[in-house]
Specification:
Strand content: under 5%
Number of helices: 10
Distance between the termini: 41 Å
Number of strands: 0
Largest sheet: none
Radius of gyration: 30 Å
Helix content: over 70%
Length: 294
């Protein structure tokens, strides 16, 4: 499990354990917001594609004399028609892709910046300042709009899978925490006792049998924490595989949870719970040793 360099500190350089409930709730809220925004963008590109299909291409300029008038007048008419089509496309782009509710907050780009980022310089050039809208260019533009829609549709599917994974592992972590809280009171007290106090037999409030049972339960819960962490990492890798992400590309949690203090909230949460379980188990073992020595 990798170290999350954005984890908090207690001022001594040691990592500060996260508030598990708050962290996982923030993760859910952040994920829901990202999913909603991505779906809005997917739908915007679908709308753009529909509007582009209604814009007819303009025939290429004639290269020779045309009966009934000079070549220049026909070329001018062709240029004017192409300019009208491009103006229609620009308006459609602004009213779809740039009209999603989060556009200014998320991107804050000008029209030229946005269309270049989405479609690349070659396709963006006529939309920014060109005069060409022939059939070949129209097909390329339609393909670019469909690619924008398809990428976001794929990401929405990945975010849905992430949401399911988050909910599943959040419930598993909640169950572990409940089991930990239900372990014998004597073991909990031993965990909180100051150094040296656990060696005093008077501080051991649970029977030897209860302490032994608590130790077994806590050891099993440690294993469950390890299993949750392993399953979660497997989910992350599977989601990356579905998206065909390279090792250089950020994975879904890193992409989604940027606003959070950690990049991997589920792993951070289960690690914090596992560390608490380990501390409590060690406290129980100290209490057992004290009990045996009395």
């Amino acid at each position: 499990m990798g170290t999350d360099t954005r984890a908090g500190s207690d001022g001594t350089g040691a990592a500060r354990p996260p508030d598990v409930d708050a962290l996982l709730e923030r993760a859910r809220e952040t994920l829901d917001r990202e999913r909603r925004r991505t779906a809005d963008e997917r739908d915007a590109f679908a709308d753009l594609h529909d509007r582009l299909r209604a814009v007819r291409p303009v025939s290429a300029r004639p290269s020779g004399p045309v009966a009934g008038g000079p070549v220049a007048s026909v070329a001018d008419a062709t240029t004017d028609a192409a300019a009208d089509r491009l103006a229609t496309v620009r308006e459609a782009y602004r009213e779809t892709v740039m009209a999603v509710p989060h556009f200014d907050a998320e991107y804050g780009e000008s029209y030229a910046e946005s269309v270049t980022e989405e479609f690349g310089p070659a396709i963006a050039a006529p939309l920014v300042g060109g005069d060409r809208f022939d059939d070949r260019y129209r097909r390329a533009l339609l393909e670019a709009a469909e690619e924008g829609r398809s990428r976001r549709a794929t990401l929405v599917d990945a975010l849905d899978a992430e949401r399911e994974s988050l909910a599943t592992h959040r419930e598993r972590i909640r169950s572990i925490r409940e089991r930990v809280a239900a372990v014998a009171p004597g073991s909990e007290g031993a965990e909180r006792a100051p150094a040296g106090a656990a060696t005093d037999g008077a501080n051991v409030t649970a029977s030897f049998g209860a302490l032994s049972a608590a130790r077994s339960t806590l050891a099993a819960l440690e294993e469950r924490c390890d299993t949750v962490a392993a399953d979660r990492q497997a989910d992350v890798h599977e989601h990356a595989r579905r998206l065909s992400l390279s090792v250089e590309t950020v994975d879904v949690p890193t992409y989604c949870y940027g606003p959070l203090p950690v990049s991997y909230p589920v792993l951070s949460a289960v690690t914090a719970v596992g560390e608490r379980v380990e501390r409590q188990r060690r406290a129980v073992e100290r209490a057992i040793a004290t009990y045996s020595g009395t």
